[in-house]
Sequence to fold (486 residues):
Amino acid sequence: AKTLKAGDWALGDRTLDGLLLPPKAYEPGQCIARSEESLIRKPSAYRPSSHLIAKLRDYEVRHKRCAPKAVHFSQNGTNSMEDLGDCQFVVWIANSGLGNRMITIASAFVYALLTDRVLLLDHNGTDIGGLYCEPFPGTSWLLPENYDYRWMDKVVWENDHRLGRLLQSSGYANVTLPAPVPNNYVFANLMHNNDEHDKRFFCGKVQRQLKRVPLLYWRSNVYVVPGLHFVYPFHRELDLMFPERGTVFHHMSRYLFRPSNLVWGTILRFRQPHLAAAHRQVGLQLRILESNITAPAVADQLLACVLEKKILPQQSPNTEDKLLSSKTGSTAVLVTSLDEVYYQKLQNYYLDLPAEGPDYIGVHTPSKEETQQFGFDHDKKAWVDMYLLSLSDTLVTSPQSTFGYVGQALAGATPWILTKTKSAETAEETFQEHGYCNRGISLEPCFHAPPLLDCKGRGPGHALDPSSILHFIKPCEDVLGGVKIM
Ligand code: GDP
Fold:
């Protein structure tokens, strides 16, 4: 990590230490955030390596050259080598909520960097183009307009080209793909509930064979980058690209995801009047993914967490604090959640009585959606919330939520994670033992469904535990069975 000097921020380096090309490399006006983001976002404490920067510049050239060939992707999956030339692709298929989509786009992009492929995105009904700026200059990361999505709907479990199915047909111990693979495409099923055959995607022998398959469809809802380290050549390359191992998603999310002009306007219209004046911003992201806890109980836990870890000040018994002259600044607290109860809890806490210290505490919430919904307007709100969250100096997040993973990575801030509880009855006992929340072990997202690796086909009982293969791939704090890079 580098040390920041006071002047660094004011300079507003728009290339983010060379991670991005300067705005003039792109079509003018298409992405205002590209020029303005550095004026409101503090610079990262982590510098991208020169190797990563060189890889990205190569990638941009390759993308521009190869993306137009996607018009040749055929309507029924029969792709000809002649049409595609030396270009190879990874085609990302949209899945799940926005956080899941962002961690999987980034995973597929890292894979594309490792394998010299070009990443193209399914934007059927997801309006990726409306949410984000195009990340690569002079080209598009979206599949061509004429792409036949009826065909993509068939790239599911039953598809004959599913990697696990192709491998299975050669026999468990063989780990061999047909040569050549019919129609030149393979469907990598990287969903959390894939099978042991699909999970052999993370075996070196499989990756060597995939080198001759020009088209790879990628359907996933998990962050697989930790698993890519299990393939030795990928591990070597990842270490060169990311010498600070736990910064993969940090750099990749800052490289790939920039709010479109429409979203940028909304971000500024919320941030400037509500958050900009504060000298410090604390972001709280609340999401309940388990059925055994209630929102009011989590609100109590949240307040206890921010007070216990001194993330926010206690109420003060000192009446002097009521005087205007005793407060010199303000801290902004941004609460993002589907449920308003957390916002109300904190808002009341800081309105009822003065807080200790020199700051007024302003509590804000940009949206109240109540339930998870789909469609552009909801995705836009979610993206605005995530982005505002990512402008925080300190974050508290909910276990297991990919929404929080995006916020923390863009922010470059390792979050405090709320402690998981087994049941309402035992919650207090758990908190007494483990605390209401704890600091995460790294900035990286958790890989929720890592492979039990059996690349040699030794059979059940011989598979490797993913958390014991490499010393820097550890069990996640927030998901049982998950692993993350630290
Ligand atoms: P995860 O389910 O927590 O891993 O996160 P995802 O982003 O993949 O899916 C959650 C979806 O629920 C989002 O895409 C939003 O539509 C919605 N959602 C969850 N939390 C929030 C929030 O704090 N604000 C908004 N606007 N939407 C949210």
The pocket of guanosine-5'-diphosphate is lined by residues 96-100, 287, 336-338, 367, 369, 372, 378, 381-382, 385, 401-403 (CB under 6 Å). The CA atoms of residues 441 and 486 lie 6 Å apart. The chain has two domains: 6-256, 261-418. Residues 6-256 form one domain.
